Amino acid sequence: MRNIILTGFMGTGKSTVGRLVAAKLQREFIDMDTLIEQREGRAITQIFAESGEPYFRQLEANLCRELAAQSELVIATGGGALVPEANLRVMEESGLVICLDCEPDTLWQRIGQSKNRPMLADQDEERFARLQTLLEQRAPAYTRIEHHLDVTYLTLEEAAKRIYEWANDE
Question: Where are the domains positioned within the chain?
Fold first, then answer.
């Protein structure tokens, strides 16, 4: 059985929705960010600060290839994990990739005050502008993904139900 891979911007609910979908399908759930943190023995914010973003992105690329070689998983990627086309292609070969979309204002409500988002690390008045800029920068990569689900006005349970239905239609 093919994997189900959830991707999209930070704050779209990939991890929470992924756990719900995995429970419904009785599959193993993998949160890529959590797995990287466990393997590295440090938080992603620490990895960014100590080793840099290129190092973290290489860890993501390696993990994409590793997970794509497995089956019957529900995987939540980091928000930038499938921006490199090679990562997207390897994940598409292993399963159904779904991009969770959300309006910037709703994302801001969800993650605006979060302190564990390395791409929004600086706590200043420019933070929302950085969120919008990053979202715009990633938009071309996200549009390459065939399946999209706008979660702006969905509960986590509604989003999980729709993904569960897609998975059963595959």
Answer: 3-161
